[in-house]
Design brief:
184 residues, alpha+beta, Aminopeptidase, 6-stranded mixed β-sheet, 5 helices, cytoplasm, NAA40, histone H2A acetyltransferase activity
């Protein structure tokens, strides 16, 4: 009788990494990760009927990119300047338009109201949907849109077999900490 060869730790890790990369590649090969999630195409408040769309950052129209950079600077420049990272507009633009970046965009009547910048990635050995940004215009905050967008991201993560959503929040951004804490 022949003994079955046991895989070494290195072989097991290589096999796991290959499976993870296949999941990331499959998620990134999608045209629109939101497409089959019908309940996340529209969000209705008392004042707005908001459409959600999902596109690759590299496919975003110039007016969309311009608005994204503008809202990032309006909402986050001070936080970055107060951190050890500092604010570097060119570096932020490069991050926001990186090859693997996706946008979840909320708009109403051709007006941009919010966006999330995210990627399907590997973080600390896990396949994740990494939420780099969630930014809303001030007039739409505290109306449930941020929660709705995070639910859409969670559903996209689940649909694509990502283990979790990962994000980073500045310690000084108390409202964001409270928001994400309430989401669990």
């Amino acid at each position: 009788m022949q003994k079955k060869a046991r895989k070494t730790r290195r072989q097991l890790l290589a096999s796991k990494a290959a499976v993870q990369q296949q999941l990331i590649n499959k998620a990134n090969a999608l045209t629109n990760p939101l497409e089959t999630l019908d309940k996340f195409h529209e969000y209705i408040t008392t004042d707005y009927t908001i459409k959600l769309s999902c596109i690759r950052a590299k496919d975003a129209q110039p007016e969309c990119l311009s608005w994204i950079f503008d809202i990032m600077e309006r909402n986050m420049k001070d936080m970055y300047e107060q951190s050890t990272w500092g604010w570097d507009a060119a570096e932020k633009q490069a991050e926001l338009t990186e090859e693997m970046a996706w946008y979840l965009i909320a708009s109403c009547n051709d007006k941009f109201l919010g966006f999330s910048h995210f990627r399907f990635d590997i973080d600390n050995g896990d396949v994740v949907l990494y939420c780099y940004e969630l930014q809303l215009e001030s007039e739409i905050r505290r109306k449930g849109l941020g929660r709705f967008m995070m639910s859409a991201l969670e559903s996209m993560a689940y649909q694509n077999q990502m283990l979790k959503i990962v994000l980073t929040v500045f310690k000084r951004n108390l409202s964001a900490i409270q928001f994400f804490y309430t989401l669990g």
